[in-house]
Amino acid sequence: MKYSISTYTLFKLPIEEAIEAIIEKGWKSIEIMGEGETHGRRLFDMDRTQLEKLARLGKDNGVSFGFHLPIVGFNPAKPDEVTEQIWEKCLFIAEILEVDYVLLHLGSHPSVSGGLESAANFSKKMLGELPEKTKLVVENVPYAEMAVGTSIDELNKVVEMIDTPRAGIMLDTGHCYMNEKPRFLEECTKAFPYLYGLHINDNHGVSDEHLQIGEGTIPFGPLLFALEDRSVKYVFETNTVERAENSMNFVKINSWGKQDVENSIK
């Protein structure tokens, strides 16, 4: 079990300030959110020297990075010129930061099956251009008009079409609960064959609140129990760093017991 935190926890800060603040908190794995004009989108305006400075900051502090690709304008399910341009910039960033994985939403398409096929083909292209060590993970998203990747079955189909061990699933607990509240655990377990990690956040099943575990109504206990023997990455994607830390401690208590948590490090 590996613990990581998303810069979404400090979404109001410029991305470089968010990374610095999270490192100061002692985290050793950070998922960089590539969205937000005043947050992750700032990466696209950085030159090589600026990006290399961020990379050195990570290395000097023993920190590894993941990269959540942008959402707005990036549409692997129906790639266009804008999607290609965004990917070119993302590839440059991913290479310099030496990220462990890139994460993407599949996007939108009038036909789900057509969108899945397009997303799989675009993902193959991405993997062909990324460094060999970098994995690609797809995330489930909330229901929306023409959205592709709202169900785990759809994500599984894409991963199977990509057909490489370098591809997997990042299961977002909040999105899954919003879409499949009565069948939450059943839906989550469908991702297990290709599960790379989880976005851990809580809500009440209506909106994407990004709360800490226990502030919403997601039944995390059974899910954590089902994952007990699996080596997956837990990415805490809450709306504050404090909520991420509280959620991490909840997971550790469920896995290890209170005394182990008190003596543990991130």
From TrEMBL:
Q: Any idea which UniProt keywords this protein has?
A: Isomerase
The molecular function GO annotations come to: isomerase activity
Superkingdom, taxonomy of origin: Bacteria
Q: Which SMART domains match?
A: AP2Ec (SM00518)
Q: What are the Xylose isomerase-like TIM barrel domain coordinates in residue numbering?
A: 20-238
InterPro entries per UniProt: AP_endonuc_2, IolE/XylAMocC-like, Xyl_isomerase-like_sf, Xyl_isomerase-like_TIM-brl
Q: What is this protein called?
A: Sugar phosphate isomerase/epimerase
